[in-house]
Amino acid sequence: MSVAPIAPISAAATALRVQVIGAVETGLMAAVDAVQGQQAAAPAAEPTPPAPPLPNPLRQAVDAARADAAGRQASAAPLFADITEAQHAPDLAAPIKAAIGQLLMLRTSLGGPITAAIIKQAIAQSGLFLEARLLARAPPGEAAPPDVKAALLTLQRALAATPAAGALVATHPPATPPPVREAALSAQPPARATLSAADGAPVIVQHLQREVDQALARQVLHQLASLPDGATPAWMFELPLATPRGTGLAQFEIDRDAPEAEAGHPTEAWRVRFSIDIEPLGPVHVHLRLEGDQAAVTLWAERADGLERLRGQGGELAKALPAEVVFHPGAPRRPLPSSGQFVDQTS
Question: Could you tell me which residues come within 8 angstroms of residue 118 by beta carbon, excluding any fewer than 6 positions away?
Answer without folding.
Answer: 108
